[in-house]
Amino acid sequence: MRYPEDHAAFLDFEQFYRTGFVTRVQETPPCQHAGFLFHDAESRGCHRWIYCPLMRVFALLLLAACLLPAQQDRYQRLMRDLLIFDAHIDTPRYFLDEGYRLAAEHSYYELDLPRMKKGHLGAVFFGIYAQPQDYPPQSWLPRALEVLDALRREVAANQDQIEFATTAADVERIHASGRRAALASLEGGHLIAGSLGVLRMFHQLGVRYMTLAHFATNGFADSMTGDPVHNGLSPSGRALVREMNRLGMLVDVSHISDKAVLDAVAESRAPVIASHSSVKAIAPIVRNMPDKVIRAIASKGGVVCINFHAGYLDEAAYKVYYANRPARDREIKEVLSRHENDPARWEMVRAIQRKYFAKMPKTNYRLLLRHVDHVAKLVGPAHVGFGSDFDGISGMVPEGMEDVSHYPVLVKGLMDMGYSDTDIRSIMGLNLVRVMRRAEEVAAKQ
Length: 446
Ligand SMILES: [Zn+2]
Fold this sequence. Notes:
TIM Barrel
């Protein structure tokens, strides 16, 4: 007798977590011989009343009644003090450009304080960026300063709920106080205008990691989407890494070429992070990291934080996104120039983004967890985290993980996958706290 796997019935765990009850049992299409789940391949017939779907459902419900309350207790215990730390969210430019307010709950974009609270999101590294292809070089530095200023002002205006953090101890203290920790990061070495003096000033202003390059190669490092002119890091890129170590600023290797990551890992005395990178072994696209690079990052104690971009999670989604991107960007540019001073233009942009996102194959948060699981199995749960890239991925989010309020589904997902509480704590946030603390220790020794 054969038990075909695709006949498996399973309980709706998601619904259970949401409501505390199971009222629905999902089931894949049963055997073609109606009324039976088991099919005897040899005799080509179905037998025995005990295999009828209702009996199986009853048995599963009985099992669930015993197991699920314990699982729910465990979840609630875990959530009481769990630190969820996202390594990369790009909201600050909206504070500056669109008057987006942290304190108000929105039906668009992916982060605000009410939704952080709902999602138990305790700490965020906010990205400060000016994409090299979108701004002339003379605007990069002032733009970065303005976006950082907008972040700091927005945080200062909501001190009762959120506080600017610069150390691992800050993150822990703020989290223990029941508020959220906001941290700042720079996305792309081009933002410091080739100057270590500018880097030091950004450190003084509270920036605690910098991505060595963004979408284009710069004087420090080859970008994985730019021209490979340095064969990895340039000599000044190596000097930059040493200065970041000296300051206690984390080196972020997302966006840079594989060779540049290996060079940065070799040069750095502190662990490095990939603040928002997914896994090439699952989705073989240019922006993702191969296993060899993930192993190198882990070998230095670092962390790979998985990016939620639907196109980075799934190759089929990426192909559609990539093919449509020029047309999408053209439409957005046209709308922005035609409606230059119209406050409604941002909603027009979002409508274009939604239109193109709808053309992409659907992905969901379970696929995102597969990326996490891959890294955890490859190098251990101490070396994986989350760097959603929310508000930087044009709304291309996986189903079930549409904004920061959905973070608990990832906790439940990791529980269902068999991760221990200790591992879940590490993955959800403590790995990032550990690398921050280690970078601070390395800096203190110099
Ligand atoms: Zn990025």
